[in-house]
Each structure stands twice: as C-alpha cells, then as structure tokens.
Amino acid sequence: MKKIVVTAAAVVLPLVFAGPAVSEPTPVEPGPPATVLAEPAATGPLGTAYPIRTGGDMTVTVHPSEAEVAPRAADGSVLVFDVSAEQTAGKPYFLPTLDLRLITTNGDMVYPLTGVPGEYPGGFVEPEQPRSGLVAFELTGEQQPKEIVFATNDDFVQGAWTL
C-alpha cells in the first residue's frame, strides 16, 4: 500500500505543480513618455522661495552671491549662489545636501562642487530654524547657465530658479 501511495504521489505531484514546458514571453508594455512623468515645477527668478517636500515641508530660496570660488578646470567658470532652507512643518529632518542642480542652455545637468568654503552645511534641518550656505557650480567654456533646479532625482523637479 505504501508503494502505491508513493508511486501515485511521484506521478501526480509533478503534474499538479508543473508549469507549461515552454512559457511564451509576456509582451512588455511601453511606459509613458518622460514628459508625462515629469510634473510641472514652479519656476521663477532668483530670490523666490519655493515649498519643497523632502522629509517634511521645507522652503528653499536661492539668491545670487558675491562670493568667489576658483575654477577647478582650466577653461571653467564658477557660479556661486547663497541658498537657505527651512523646515516649515514636521520633525527635524536630516538633509546631507541640498538636491540642487544647474541646467545649461543645451540641457546639460551640472552638479554642485564639493569642498567649497562656506558651502551649505549638511545635517538636521530644524523647524523654524533656517539654515544657509553657498552652492557653487562649475561650467566649462561652452556651457551657458539656464536655471537652477531642486530635484530629489533627475526626473522629479520641485522648483526652478531662472538665471
């Protein structure tokens, strides 16, 4: 009797749990175009305060700065901005860096320089305690600045300051 049960199980179980011998690939549906994914961001001149949502509600403002930073490349020029951020609601939030990028007229995305004297300090942003510092971007000879954006990733822009 035991042999019959084991034999039956050996024959029936593979049939029950077996999938098709060859599965056909599932067609992949194309995603929406990138322009549909990107939500329109608030845009305005330098000095405009924008509400930013990253770990809580914040306000970020970018102003021109008279500070000078030496270029690191032979053909480079550096643009320096004074940036302030304030947590307007919620608990203190650790913000290691501000997610600012400079967009050029030909669409290049330039990330901020690091190690700049007076740069925006990372750390906890406390409610009602604004924090400010410098953010600097280096452009090569042929690049022209268009705007500064706050983007938590390259496709999610929450505010833009026109230059």
From TrEMBL:
Residues 1-23 form the signal peptide. Keywords: Signal. This is DUF4352 domain-containing protein. The lineage of its organism: Bacteria, Bacillati, Actinomycetota, Actinomycetes, Mycobacteriales.
